[in-house]
Design a protein that fits this description.
7-stranded mixed β-sheet, single chain, UPF0173 metal-dependent hydrolase HUG10_05885
Length: 240
């Protein structure tokens, strides 16, 4: 079992360090929760859940990294940003990235991109990042983190992601309006059966300003055993 160092940079931006591998998810540093200069980070891999501006705004800071996303999104990065080192994958697929195994899972959201030709980024996604390859055999020694992306509540969390990919921790959007709010996010945490839950995608813009105590209260109301961690921006949590 390997430790995962999880650092939240506000909104949906997470840095995941696993062994000698550094991954950055959805780089967007123009948010009120972080004081970090994106140039300070040097990820090996950048994972993109979808093509909305508040998830890809800082991709140009990491031209030397390897990018992962849907084929439509990685093609867009190549055309618009000149990013050459990409892996296009799709829902259900698992790729090995250094010490990490990354599985792309479904998210229920939209994925139009802000271009003059109205391009689609394909299906929106989430990722499960694990220190071992997922199989049908339960592995109590494995450690896995689920980044839900932008999503509503979906039965896939209860029927597939929780029981088969077995995340120990989940970062779930809670800001409402564009994604789940506290109530649906709490139900997601319960369905996933995780030990640790992190709220994300909130307080960045007026429509998604919330009181995170609502999320903590809703998680308790489900009967979930998960511990809720409301991280400060730029704060790191070690998942062991």
């Amino acid at each position: 079992m390997a430790a995962l160092e999880l650092t939240w940079y506000g909104h949906s931006t997470w840095h995941v360090s696993l062994g000698d591998t550094d991954l950055l998810v959805d780089p967007f540093f123009d948010n009120p929760k972080t004081d970090t200069d994106p140039e300070e980070l040097d990820p090996d891999h950048v994972l993109l859940t979808h093509g909305h501006a508040d998830h890809i705004a800082d991709v140009d800071r990491y031209r030397g990294a390897h990018f992962v996303g849907t084929p439509e999104l990685t093609s867009y990065l190549s055309d618009e940003y000149g990013v050459d080192d990409t892996t296009g994958m799709n829902l259900g697929g698992t790729v090995e990235l250094g010490d990490a195994f990354v599985t792309m899972v479904r998210a229920d959201h939209s994925n139009g991109m802000d271009t003059s030709y109205g391009a689609s980024g394909g299906m929106p996604a989430g990722y499960v990042i694990s220190d071992s390859k997922p199989t049908q055999e339960s592995d109590e020694e494995a450690t896995a983190f689920y980044h839900a992306g932008d999503t509503s509540l979906m039965s896939e969390m209860r029927d597939v992601i929780g029981p088969f990919l077995e995340p120990d921790a989940a970062a779930v959007p809670v800001g409402d309006h564009f994604t789940m709010g506290p109530t649906q996010a709490a139900i997601a945490v319960d369905w996933l059966d995780v030990d640790h839950a992190f709220p994300m995608h909130y307080d960045t813009f007026p429509p998604i300003e919330i009181d995170t105590e609502d999320f903590e209260r809703e998680v308790r109301a489900t009967g979930s055993h998960a511990e809720v961690h409301v991280l400060a921006g730029d704060e790191t949590f070690t998942l062991e």
